[in-house]
Every structure is written in structure tokens, then in C-alpha cells.
Please model this.
Amino acid sequence: MSVWSKLSRLLTVDDTIMDEDFSLIEGAEYVELKGADQCCGLEILDDKMEKVETTAAHYVVTSNPGCLLQMKKGIERAGQQERMQAMHIMDLLADLV
Model:
């Protein structure tokens, strides 16, 4: 069974991915992250993760490789691996094909 059969809430951590990009993904609900346009680098990651955790998103999606690495680190450090995962937008689309 594909993980996407359980797809429900998507969150983006940068503003290059817009709501309409996800409108074609069946079962997906786009959730906008407050402060999505703000950096998540270095110590700013903790602040970004606090915002991420309040969304109840299952997938954190980004088009920025640096953001992806940071969000994966933040999810792991916050102990949220069972609840959410970070993905690059191209990996998301590849899994849907």
C-alpha cells in the first residue's frame, strides 16, 4: 500500500509552492504555514518547528533542498517522526505517479 493512500494534510515551509499546486492531489488538504516565507536555518529552526507542530500536518513539503534538510532535522529533533515527514515536492509528485 502506498503512503499516499493516507495523504491528508500537506504543509509547505516556503512560499514557492502554492495552494493550487496541491489542488490536483486527491485527498490532500493544503495548510499554509504561518511565517512560511521566513528562513528555517540555524537556530531559527526551533521557532519554525513550533509553528509546524501547531498545524497537525502529516507532510511538510518544500522545493528548497536546504529547507528540506532543516525540516527533516527539526522533525527528528522534536520527536515527530511518527506523526509527520518532510518531503521535496518532486518526491511527492514522483510517488503519486
Q: What stands out?
A: The first strand starts at residue 9 and ends at 12.
